[in-house]
């Protein structure tokens, strides 16, 4: 699921591609997306700007006019700007493409006025993403630890009496009212660096922290940083990485930098437990006193630098002897060619295959000739035997052969007396 750094990077991308561009016409929603509303506006041309806060991002549409500034000011007074609030769900993201390259899961599209037309699309493969027109951020979201660190710190430490802080630290860090933008991979990396058992009561960990503490992105002071400061430092590290950040599919080319950055999350050398909310918590060392009973775990996805030793050894063997692995596949191909014969013009049959076919044809022809000879001889022998025995007409008509002749012979025999 995209977290704070991914939405921050997406807003930055949208601002980059939309700078100096004018959008025009209707905003198109896909027919299959029934849960989200149509977006309507009352101006022909408009510009787009983006901003993020935690796990939310907003597009701000403003009317545009090529006339002088006085007329534009009048338009802005008459028509307010339109603000569309997005929550990305499990797989939401924005793409800026040509008309021919629109993603098949693009559920909201904004078209440029320029020619050839370009499209800004909200892409959501799993369709958990949501949007609505709203002038502010959601009420149940706290300050962003990346953009508003001091307000974030105050919001956490001034609310420690709330019963939610009786829960394990790792579960409280998923509460967007206090830890806006922190998700599964960020909490694992932050708690790992803080060297705290994840299932320790949150109030116990946070009670002795100072309310005022300056934000810092200096990695040299990581050992001195408390867990709230790490909520600012660690996401900023992801923002500074090349590429788009976290991609659950793992197929994107920009994903490698992020995978190399991870130390704890989805690492098969680390421990994991499914928390009380059903999410997987990755950690090192002790789980803590509030760990769920039963100790259910999940298998790690093994990719990137987090491969096990045995997997790395196998990978190196493949590098050393690539030719040995290819030979069996070549032999199989040859066998299939000899069996199939001349199915394709490229796959010509070998000399041995041709000889085999000739032998088979000759043997089948010989067998046919022998069979026909046998049938002819058997017919001749039957005719000769019937002539010599002089079978009566009645026996031949009956069609019963020797049994009919026996009955006639018995009748013709003279009495012994």
CATH architecture of the domain at 149-283: Orthogonal Bundle
Strand content: 5-15%
Query: What is the N-to-C order of secondary-structure elements (H for helix, E for strand)?
Result: HEEEEHEEEEEHHHHHHEEHHHHH
What would CATH call the class of the domain at 149-283? Mainly Alpha
Major sheet description: 5 strands, antiparallel
How many beta-strand runs?
A: 11
How far apart are the first and last residues' alpha carbons, in Å?
A: 117 Å
Helix vs. strand class = alpha+beta
Q: Assign the CATH topology of the domain at 149-283.
A: Helicase, Ruva Protein, domain 3
Residue runs with pLDDT of under 50 for 5 or more positions: 320-327, 330-346, 395-400
Q: What is the molecular shape?
A: flat
GO biological process, one term: base-excision repair
Organism: Actinia tenebrosa (Australian red waratah sea anemone)
Biased composition (Basic and acidic residues): 309-331, 362-373
GO cellular component, one term: nucleus
């Amino acid at each position: 699921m995209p977290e704070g750094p991914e939405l921050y990077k997406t807003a930055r991308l949208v601002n980059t591609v939309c700078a100096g561009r004018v959008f025009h016409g209707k905003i198109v929603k896909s027919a299959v997306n029934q849960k989200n509303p149509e977006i309507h506006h009352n101006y022909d041309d408009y510009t787009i700007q983006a901003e993020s806060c935690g796990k939310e991002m907003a597009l701000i549409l403003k009317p545009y006019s090529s006339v002088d500034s006085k007329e534009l000011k009048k338009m802005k007074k008459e028509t307010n700007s339109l603000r569309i609030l997005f929550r990305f769900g499990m797989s939401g993201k924005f793409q800026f493409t040509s008309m021919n390259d629109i993603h098949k899961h693009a559920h909201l599209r904004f078209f440029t006025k320029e020619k050839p037309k370009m499209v800004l699309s909200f892409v959501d493969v799993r369709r958990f993403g949501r949007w609505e027109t709203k002038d502010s951020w959601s009420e149940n979201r706290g300050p962003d630890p990346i953009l508003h660190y001091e307000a974030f710190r105050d919001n956490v430490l001034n609310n420690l009496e709330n019963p939610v802080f009786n829960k394990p630290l790792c579960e409280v860090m998923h509460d967007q009212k206090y830890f806006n933008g922190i998700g599964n991979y960020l909490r694992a990396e932050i708690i790992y660096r803080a060297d705290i058992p994840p299932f320790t009561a949150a109030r116990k960990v946070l009670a002795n922290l100072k309310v005022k503490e300056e934000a810092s992105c200096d990695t040299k002071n990581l050992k001195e940083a408390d867990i709230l400061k790490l909520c600012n430092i660690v996401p900023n590290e992801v923002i500074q990485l090349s590429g788009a950040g976290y991609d659950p599919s793992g197929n994107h080319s920009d994903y490698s930098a992020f995978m190399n950055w991870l130390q704890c999350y989805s690492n098969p050398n680390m421990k994991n437990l499914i928390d009380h909310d059903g999410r997987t918590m990755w950690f090192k060392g002790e789980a803590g006193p509030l760990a769920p009973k039963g100790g259910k775990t999940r298998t790690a996805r093994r990719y990137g630098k987090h491969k096990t030793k045995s997997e790395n050894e196998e990978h190196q063997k493949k590098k050393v002897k690539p030719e040995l692995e290819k030979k069996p596949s070549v032999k199989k191909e040859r066998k299939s060619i000899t069996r199939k014969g001349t199915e394709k013009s490229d796959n010509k049959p070998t000399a041995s295959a041709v000889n085999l076919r000739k032998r088979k044809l000759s043997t089948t022809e010989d067998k046919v000739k022998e069979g026909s000879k046998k049938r002819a001889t058997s017919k001749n022998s039957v005719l000769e035997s019937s002539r010599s025995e002089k079978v009566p007409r009645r026996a031949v008509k009956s069609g019963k052969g020797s049994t009919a002749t026996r009955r006639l012979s018995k009748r013709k025999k003279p009495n012994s007396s």
